[in-house]
Amino acid sequence: MRTGLIAEKIGMMQIFEENGTQIPVTVLKVEPCTVIAQRKESVDGYNAVQIGARAVPANKVSKPLRGYFAQKEIEPCKLLKEFRVDEANLLAVGEKLDVNHFTANQFVDVTGVSIGKGFAGAMKRHHFGGLRASHGVSVSHRSHGSTGQRQDPGKVFKNKKMAGHMGARRVTKLNLSIHSIDSERGLLFIKGSVPGAKKGLLYIRDAIKKQSAI
């Protein structure tokens, strides 16, 4: 496993191939990342790399973080993220990473926070079919119907699909393919959609379940 990178979601667009095929892609702006620290199994019990992005003035971070970055002799960063890696893929502190960390046609996993929908009913949240449109149903066409049994067990089981807060959760989409890379502008074009709203933060790393198509 290699380290991942931090990116910002710009939005979606479509790309037309030479044969006329239309491909929907999501545009991601990859932040220039710096290796802040290493985690070694001999010391910390696991192997990982801590990545920082979006450099900020020292007075924009807390005093403990100011000392932390000063000890590393690295400019303070607004964003910090730790990625698990293999021991062979540990990177030196201070090393710079950019969009060229990935390649076209590579499979990646993208993690982000899904768009919040607020309080949603069972039909929107869980795709329930709703009650009948006629024949005795009045006012409650979009209700979720019965939620339990009779006196035995006499309760509603946990995790029952019901109305409630929808979205605003950490989501990872697996095995997404990178269509192309714009090295000059630091952009990744990923086939299909990714979690989150525009300007949302995303974490991209090599796909775990699927090898690269290179």
Automatic annotation (TrEMBL):
Gene3D superfamilies: 3.30.160.810, Translation factors. One of its GO terms (molecular function) is rRNA binding. One of its GO terms (cellular component) is ribonucleoprotein complex. Coiled coil: none annotated. The keyword DNA-binding does not apply. Methylated by PrmB. The keyword Ribosomal protein applies. SUPFAM superfamilies: Translation proteins. Keywords: Methylation, Ribonucleoprotein, Ribosomal protein, RNA-binding, rRNA-binding. One of its GO terms (biological process) is translation. It comes from the Bacteria. The modification N5-methylglutamine is found at residue 151. Residues 136-155 are annotated as: Disordered. Part of the 50S ribosomal subunit. Forms a cluster with proteins L14 and L19. One of the primary rRNA binding proteins, it binds directly near the 3'-end of the 23S rRNA, where it nucleates assembly of the 50S subunit. Belongs to the universal ribosomal protein uL3 family. This is Large ribosomal subunit protein uL3. It comes from Candidatus Finniella inopinata.
